Amino acid sequence: MELGSVGGQPTGSQFAQPSLMPVNGDLERLSASSGREFLQTFVDILQDVLQNDFMAISELRVVERERIQVKAGWMDGENIENFEYDACFTPCLDAIRSAQIIITHKGVQDAYPDDDLLRHKGLESFIGYPVVNVHGEVIGLIQLGWKHQIEEEESQQIVELIADFARRIATELENLRTVRILKALARGPSEPSKDVFRLVAEQVQLLLGVRSVMIAECSQDDADYFKILSYCEGNDWLTDMEGQLMTYEGRPCHNLKSQPEERIDSGLAEAYPHHPRYREANFNAYLGIRVNDTEGEMIGHIVVFNHEGVITHTLETELLSVLRDRLGFEIMRQRTLEQE
């Protein structure tokens, strides 16, 4: 078995084998397409050029753990668009976490024995090319696989070929991701009776792909307490929790009184053993976001619970700020209505 890794994001160059280069007609097809059409066109062209057994361009989706969602691809002559799988035991995970190109010239099943997909499809060699956005964040992956061994020279030429299109692929993936998130945020309540605080909780859950979200307002009578406005867990609304008063003391949200954000990537249940629910629900990670009024005074907070750490790329961070400000506006609006 030979396992190699090529670091960094290479730049394009001329090839020793010109046959690997797409022809002018292919380049025209690429330039005339965008979004999923561009990604699938690129996959189709590359498969025709390389004659490989597996080719996919995928988006990194972080829900309870890293998952890969194929946006365009082929395997054994079949379209695998929207196919999604756990990246936990795959060479994909190494490429994602290291932001490095992973190349296995032979014996990829031996290198990753827990990857069922490699074994089921009989793949022998593999290339994983991380897709990086302008902020240096890994947002996806380009994957290629063969049922036979590939040579080092061939793999280097393929990597250089992909590098020529890597920035455009990153842009198209980012655009698809932005549209998906904005659609989720723009979606109105599925039920006419659903109030705005449930809507905000739902939007945060959709944005981050997390297990549970709680929306809370600081008590106007006692600064040591907060009131739960909405609480979703999975696909369920914990309606019995809404309206309940909770103390800040002894909870991670207590730290939001002095800072804009509190993040615990792992060990939540161990850090707060007097809250058995954290352990019962397998909540291992926490993200708390402070909500202020126009004067900078804390009036509420958003809490996210998850089994694994919550990863927020630049786009999610910006949209979370929008939702935080929206929540602050709605809390102040409700307070004004209650005073009338």
Automatic annotation (TrEMBL):
Q: What is this protein called?
A: GAF domain-containing protein
For region Disordered, the annotated ranges are 1-20
Domain GAF, by residue range, is: 34-183, 192-340
Record's Gene3D superfamilies? Answer: 3.30.450.40
Biased composition (Gly residues) is annotated at 1-10
Q: Which InterPro entries does this UniProt record tie to the protein? A: GAF, GAF-like_dom_sf
Q: Which organism is it from?
A: Phaeobacter italicus
